[in-house]
Specification:
The protein is α+β, with helices and mostly antiparallel strands. It is built from 7 helices and 8 strands. It has 2 domains: 121 residues, no CATH class; 33 residues, no CATH class. 18% of the residues are buried.
């Protein structure tokens, strides 16, 4: 992928209530360098974090932010530990509230975004949503996992390794892969 010569990130901190009053839509890239929690949860954030956030007034004068965010990350397969790609796409509908107390009064379909003063951190907001979308563990599909070799190289098995049924299985799997022309 070509890296654009200049990356214009969305501002990290905004004034969400003012944006609601102005009916602003923010579309752009979230700076991944500011998403330390997401960075630590994955092997790599491999594609730009794109966000589209609409600041709007809903029923009963509620100030809401609706939108979506997406990126692609690499996560370690928990079977073979090789990184695998995972596309993340989240939809959000959040009501901007001043406090936990106010948050409790919201209808179920609106999640709160608690912003206790004028400034709200949209980078953290988008990062939170992406973190919630991460699976707890990930595995390659079994036929694409890179574990086959590890079964046939058990240590300290000596002669037994010759009869290790998993060794035969691994051999078969590799030959099948070769036959199908897919070594991926
Ligand atoms: Zn795997």
């Amino acid at each position: 992928m070509l890296t654009p010569p200049q990356r214009n990130f969305l501002p990290q901190v905004i004034e969400p209530r003012r944006l609601v009053n102005q009916g602003v839509t923010l579309t752009g890239e979230i700076n991944p360098d500011l998403c330390l929690r997401l960075s630590e949860a994955v092997v790599e954030i491999s594609e730009p974090i794109m966000a589209n956030l609409v600041f709007d007034t809903a029923e009963q004068g509620r100030k809401v932010v609706r939108g979506s965010a997406s990126t692609t990350v690499l996560m370690a397969c928990q079977r073979c530990l090789e990184p695998m790609k995972l596309s993340l796409a989240v939809e959000m509908a959040l009501c901007i509230v001043w406090s936990e107390e106010k948050a409790k009064l919201l209808p179920r379909d609106l999640d709160p975004w608690i912003v206790e003063d004028e400034a709200g951190d949209i980078t953290a907001l988008v990062e939170d949503e992406l973190l919630l979308a991460l699976p707890f563990v990930m595995y390659h599909p079994e036929d694409q996992c890179n574990t086959a070799a590890s079964y046939s190289t058990g240590e300290g098995l000596g002669d037994v390794a010759e009869e290790n049924p998993f060794g035969v299985l691994a051999q078969l799997t590799r030959e099948q892969l070769k036959d199908s022309g897919s070594d991926n």
